[in-house]
Amino acid sequence: MSRRGLKRWVRRGIVVAAVLALIPTVLTFLYLPSFVHPVSTLMLKDLATFSGYDRRWVSIDDVAPVLANSVIMSEDGQFCFHRGVDLGELRGVVDDALAGEATRGASTITMQTVKNLFLWSRPLGSVRKVVELPLAVYFDAVMSKRRIMEIYLNIAEWGPGIYGIEAAAQHHFGVSAKQLSRRQAALLAVSLPNPIARNPAKPGPGLRRLANLIERRAGRSGAYVGCLQ
């Protein structure tokens, strides 16, 4: 390839990268109003493959508060205090990796939200994580914590083809999101890390133990969930 041709491809690559970076920036502002109901990339994939899915958008005002409290205590205890990325958890992951130890997850609710909205889980892998971090900081700066939680609860996957807390509550327990009990909320929260393998309606011993822990923590969540008030 000639030098001129190489420069042309580099310029095209820069333009493509700029456009791809602009898409989530613009969409974030479009998602600010509460009447806008975003969809996730997984939902788009289900549509593209004609798989279909069940998602029934519900306002955070119509979700039992104990559900959001349980999700915070299970997924991201510092949600109300960090700015999209939990630097303390992130440092711990880096330290563990440098020491050759098994790393733990450091993904915040905001990071999971931008991943679900704008990115694919595979095949990007570690590249996705690099993109996810600045996106989460930006998303947190633009959105209120309450709106972030509302979007997250409405796009999170809770089983094959089951998206959002209203569809999940109806599918697993036959009640609305507003009617969820403390126990049901805890079971739904602890199933989030692996919603395909973990069934909140038929929990095994391990899932029940996790739910017991989160149910207790949610009951004492206090200031940890203050940003949702």
TrEMBL record:
Pfam families, per database record: Transgly
EC number: 2.4.99.28
Subcellular location: Cell inner membrane
Main location: membrane
Protein's pathway: Cell wall biogenesis; peptidoglycan biosynthesis
Taxonomy, superkingdom: Bacteria
Assigned keywords, A-Z: Cell inner membrane, Cell membrane, Cell shape, Cell wall biogenesis/degradation, Glycosyltransferase, Membrane, Peptidoglycan synthesis, Transferase, Transmembrane, Transmembrane helix
HAMAP family for this protein: PGT_MtgA (MF_00766)
Protein name according to UniProt: Biosynthetic peptidoglycan transglycosylase
Gene: mtgA
